[in-house]
């Protein structure tokens, strides 16, 4: 709490000091980008120099990058600032990708769009990314003791590298990022703008609302992570898997060969722990073939990371069935997809999460639920509270109360940020709407064909409470044989 008050004090002093130094800290250049349809979008590409840790007088300066896409409206509304997920992800690259830039065109009919990279991210700015140059142990996905030892070694190597390069990890918190947003607002001479946050971007957006809310006109929060939601509840994963098992039980592509998905999962877990699967993948570090053993930890890692994505959910029954039959080709595809996470550490990602932390009550609930969760091994590993970090405190995590006009959006199949989290946050918002997209996972809410028109309608000040969005019901890929008209890259790559 003391550190939080000190940080807020520093912020207030810098705020009242005025913007006389922003001209020296802000660099910009005009540039244009082209969409897939050939539309040219004019933009300002820039960076703002900020202190890496505002409460450390000896802190080094870092550059926070942004791209401001120019509106086609002759009388644009206040700018809309986009806050990407993660933490640890940039978004300025979207201006250079014609496909993603095309998606922003409808928004530009309303206002400018500001794509803002999170501190320490973006091209040429990966200050807190450490790549481990040593190969991973063969049984890192099967042996808990080996996994712990490996990650402790890599973590210590990362911390030593950051220290040698003068990185102040205590500057990589959500509160510091919120101040970055407001510094940019002042540097660009705006009194207000609107926020559009996705996943972790909603967490950051709420922090900005909490401390700088007078400068927010509208907020759109997609896939909501509240200020006390950083540590996921194990029961959310347990419930998600049981829900998918019931859906699979009703699908003829699955239920004849697999009448009970939960029973199949438990059998596969026992088999992998007794006799881990040995598969060959390509090393992301050397591009050379390598062998890894996969136990229940490796399988649970795949399920926990991807079970909130509706594009992967349909293949999970086939994945479990194939492993049960001794076929590891689908397992190989998923491990190849995720093995890159074992080759490095992102100091910004790790520090942001543990600094936001969890209240005493939520942490107690997490630990209680972990004791009975079948996914205990991976969920425990994902809660690395030993990483050095400041604690943003209970005041930061306390419920947010706001009258800012806000649109919440969630998906019914989103394990990462389930709809009830949005409802919990929304309880403190007196002027809000919540659209729950049926059959959408974490990545599918924003990409629904009617999502962007609905958001734009909201940003124009119109009521969206009559909007109901839905995808068709999930159709599971057959657990064996031909997949017909259905597809998934894990199957295509193995055929």
Summarize the structure in words.
This protein has 495 residues and is an alpha/beta fold. It is 39% helix and 18% strand. The protein contains 18 helices and 13 strands. It has helices at residues 2-16, 22-25, 98-108, 144-164, 174-187, 200-212, 234-249, 261-274, 296-306, 316-324, 329-338, 347-356, 360-370, 376-381, 393-397, 419-426, 451-459, 489-492, and strands at residues 26-34, 40-51, 61-69, 77-83, 111-116, 129-131, 193-198, 216-222, 277-282, 289-294, 344-346, 405-411, 432-437. It has a 9-stranded mixed beta sheet with strand order 1-2-3-5-4-7-8-12-13, sandwiched between helices. Strands 6-11 form a two-stranded antiparallel sheet. Strand 9 (277-282) and strand 10 form a beta hairpin. The longest helix has 21 residues, at 144-164.
Q: What layout of secondary structure does this protein have?
A:
Blueprint: H1 2-16, H2 22-25, E1 26-34, E2 40-51, E3 61-69, E4 77-83, H3 98-108, E5 111-116, E6 129-131, H4 144-164, H5 174-187, E7 193-198, H6 200-212, E8 216-222, H7 234-249, H8 261-274, E9 277-282, E10 289-294, H9 296-306, H10 316-324, H11 329-338, E11 344-346, H12 347-356, H13 360-370, H14 376-381, H15 393-397, E12 405-411, H16 419-426, E13 432-437, H17 451-459, H18 489-492
Parallel strand pairs: 4-5, 4-7, 7-8, 8-12, 12-13
Antiparallel strand pairs: 1-2, 2-3, 3-5, 6-11, 9-10
Helix pairs in contact: 5-6, 8-10
